[in-house]
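Appendix B. One record, verbatim.
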Amino acid sequence: MQDPRDKAAGSPHEAARTSEGKAADIERLIAPTVTDLGYEIVRVQITGATGRQTLQVMAERPDGTMTIGDCADLSASISAILDVEDPIAGRYSLEVSSPGLDRPLTRLKDFETWAGFEARLEMTVPQGGRRRFRGSLRGLEGTEVLLQNFEDNKLYRLPFAHLGRGKLVLTDELIAATAHRRPSTDESETEI
């Protein structure tokens, strides 16, 4: 069976690392609605201690935009699902946001979209004797992320299946390249 997170991540056949654990369960609950409303899930995570937890949902439209109104609409829809399903014990806050400029890289398509920009990647399995990399994204070859490492200028082929975390680094080049996008919000927060 196809995991709904893959559909929410962009394409029904695209691999994604958008959540884990309890957050992955919640993502499976909300993904069909998020997708039906025209958004893609970038990441779902739960932070904080019991009773003070925050459920963070990062999403965007397929064109990469996310307005304050989009966040509010998506927050209301997700909130309705969570009210019925009640997947988190106790009180928590729901935070719906755009991924921002220094966004997490969680989907294969992110590495193509953001090729040429600086990123930090952390692998779950060492690659070439190391787990952490910082360099310029060079796209994909199949399911391998290509990264030109700054330390040794070597081109690494990093298996997406072993990616722990990935994120763009906020640089002047990134700011200039994304200046044309519509304004986005940091978050829309709802206490539940």
